[in-house]
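Action item from last week, closing it out:
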Amino acid sequence: MKRKKKIPLVVLSDVHLGTYGCQANELLQYLKSIQPKMLVLNRDIIDMWSFSKRYFPASHMNVLRQIIKMSNQGTRVIYITGNHDEALRKYSDFILGNFELADKLILDLDGKKPWIFHGDVFDSSTKGYAKILAKLGGKGYDLLILINSCINWVLVLFGKEKRSYSKMIKESVKKAVSFVSNFETTAAEIAIKKNTLM
């Protein structure tokens, strides 16, 4: 049996279990190869926006089982909630054995204090009415990943290199949202400087 690599800290984020783009088998293989003192699951581990009883394969469940197993074997597991698993936020500060649920985490590492939390608190696209659009975007992105997988299958069949159309589109949308958000911030700053706010 292969010896597990002992690591003081592992931080995972944006796993999105329950979506077609999740790389559950690769993650499971990695988790089985390590023995961390602390495992920080930093947001969006289970994608509750896209969660469906129709799609949650055994490989995704096996990742959860492995995390529970690691916790039972002494690894401190801290699950930090994000926008895709925000339903868990009402259970923040829940502790069960070596498993903790939190909104943020401040660590003490070699005299430094890194602060780990999800950036959705700064994201204007996950608040108010925009939240509905963000959720619809999440569903559309899942569909895009599925279509992208089919296209890549055909590309590989013809000896071509795989392409990530879903990544290209997601980056374009993020740039557009960022541009609008930056415009609003700049407009507000100018209005404050000119004292033209009502």
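Closing note: The chain has four helices and seven strands.
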